[in-house]
C-alpha cells in the first residue's frame, strides 16, 4: 500500500463471497499436524499471494475503522502476521501476546486449553499504558478461531489490564469446534469451515 492510498479505498475492496472462495482455494489442508488426527489449516499460501493478503488484511480491519480502536493485540505467532498491518490501517498501537518467556518486561499470564494441548500466553503489564488517558479499545487478531481457548485467554489478559475488548477478528473459524461459545465478545471470521 502506498502512502497516498487511503487504507480502505473501495478499489481494494473485494466482494466477500469472492474473498471467501479465494481464501478457501489458498488454504492448504495438512493431515496429522502437529499431532495425529489433527487436520491443520495452513495459511502460508494466503501469505504468499500479495494481492490476496492485502484484501484479507483490509477485510479484517474494515469493520473496525470507525470503532476507535486504540490497540490491536496479535496472538503469537500468526496473529502477528495479520495484527501488525491491521494496526497500521487502523492507526492503532500493536501489542503482541506471546508464549512464556518471550517478552522482556513484566508480564501478566493466562493458561488455557487448546484442542490438542494446554498452553500459556503472556502480555506486558504496561501494554495499554497511554498518556492520553481513557480506556483503551482493543481488537484481538489471530489467524484461526478453533476451540476459542486462545482468544478467550487473550480477552481475559486485556481486560485484567484495564482495557476494553471491542471484538476478535480472525481469518478463519473452525465452526465444528464451537469456539465462539468460549469467547464473550463479538467474533468476526472471513471464512468458516
Catalogue the unreliable spans: 1-6
- Shape, please? globular
> Helix/strand/pairing class, anyone?
alpha/beta
Task: Return Rg in Å.
Answer: 16 Å
Give the ordered list of helices and strands.
HEEHHEHEEEEHEE
CATH architectural category: 3-Layer(aba) Sandwich
The CATH class designation is Alpha Beta
How far is the first residue's CA from the last residue's CA?
A: 30 Å
User: If you consult CATH, what is the topology?
Assistant: Rossmann fold
- Give, in spatial order, the strands making up the sheet with the most strands: 4-3-7-8-9
Overall number of strands = 9
Helix content: 25-40%
Q: What amount of the residues lies in strands?
A: 25-35%
The average pLDDT value, as a whole number, equals 91
Number of helices: 5
> How many domain modules?
1
Question: What would your notes on this structure say?
Answer:
The chain is of the alpha/beta class. Helix 3 crosses helix 4. The chain has one domain: Rossmann fold. The two termini are 30 Å apart. 27% of the residues lie in helices and 30% in strands. The strands form 3 sheets. The chain has a 5-stranded parallel beta sheet, sandwiched between helices. Strands 1-2 form a two-stranded antiparallel sheet. It has a two-stranded antiparallel sheet with strand order 5-6. The chain has 5 helices and 9 strands.
Features:
two-stranded antiparallel ribbon; five-stranded parallel beta sheet; Rossmann fold; 193 residues; alpha/beta
Q: Quick gist of this model?
A:
With 193 residues, the chain is of the alpha/beta class. It has helices spanning 16-26, 44-48, 50-61, 78-90, 149-160; strands at 28-31, 39-42, 71-75, 93-97, 107-113, 118-124, 137-145, 164-173, 187-192.
Amino acid at each position: 500500500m502506498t502512502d497516498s492510498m487511503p487504507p480502505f479505498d473501495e478499489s481494494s475492496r473485494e466482494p466477500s463471497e469472492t474473498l471467501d472462495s479465494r481464501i478457501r482455494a489458498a488454504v492448504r489442508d495438512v493431515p496429522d499436524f502437529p499431532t495425529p488426527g489433527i487436520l491443520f489449516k495452513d495459511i502460508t499460501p494466503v501469505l504468499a499471494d500479495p494481492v490476496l493478503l492485502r484484501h484479507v488484511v483490509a477485510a479484517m480491519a474494515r469493520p473496525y475503522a470507525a470503532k476507535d480502536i486504540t490497540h490491536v493485540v496479535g496472538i503469537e505467532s500468526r496473529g502477528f502476521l495479520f495484527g501488525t498491518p491491521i494496526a497500521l490501517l487502523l492507526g492503532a498501537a500493536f501489542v503482541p501476546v506471546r508464549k512464556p518467556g518471550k517478552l522482556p518486561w513484566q508480564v501478566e499470564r493466562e493458561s488455557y486449553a487448546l484442542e490438542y494441548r494446554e498452553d500459556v500466553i503472556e502480555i506486558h503489564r504496561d501494554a495499554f499504558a497511554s498518556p492520553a488517558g481513557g480506556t483503551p479499545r482493543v481488537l484481538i487478531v489471530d489467524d484461526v478461531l478453533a476451540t476459542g481457548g486462545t482468544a478467550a485467554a487473550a480477552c481475559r489478559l486485556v481486560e485484567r489490564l484495564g482495557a476494553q475488548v471491542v471484538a476478535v477478528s480472525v481469518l478463519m473459524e473452525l465452526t465444528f469446534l464451537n469456539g465462539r461459545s468460549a469467547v464473550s465478545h463479538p467474533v468476526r471470521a472471513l471464512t468458516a469451515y
